[in-house]
Write a structure and sequence with these properties.
The chain has 197 residues and is mostly helical. The protein contains 7 helices and 3 strands, in the order ααααααββαβ. The chain has 2 domains: 118 residues; 53 residues, no CATH class.
Length: 197
Amino acid sequence: MTRTDGTRVTQKSTEQMDVQEQQETASGQRTSSLAITSPWVQALLTLEEETACKQLGEQMTEAGFAAVREWLDDLRVQLKRFEEHDMDRMAAILHRAQLALPHPEKISPSWQSIWQEYTTILQSKIQLLKQFPSQVRTGEWQVLMDNPYTQQGIVCYPSLTFMDAIYLFAYFRAELHPNEYIRLQRIETVWTEQGGH
């Protein structure tokens, strides 16, 4: 299968990927961070041609709204879970998903921008995974958003792991408005007190 930019997407069956993961485990490398539950997403891993992706999309559309919703929800779960050793696999899954269902808004208007959102999340997470080496990912993280030109207060999501923090960063990054900014911060020192009863 070839992308629209002319690059070739490497195809592997689920069985081949499982064998690769076992070999990586035996050699000390990390196994896949993905935990795919949707049979529709599983099917994407075995497809070798663009036409096969489109046929899958037709089958899923015939299965109805609930099937497409489950599929999109599982894709979002994988976007949240994937780590650097799954970046290429996640990109391939998302590419095939867009081939399978290029116009999800025909099923639900709320999905009009879903591929743009998912692509932005993917790209932002990849950038952050490359930016922060594993040795600095420990500890507590937070995501902060603000627009200094409005009266709205600062929004902060504290007490996060690194992986949860970069997903939230990528998720909100996709919807930033003009003059808004978003920060990913690692907390070095924390002092917490709780009010009495």
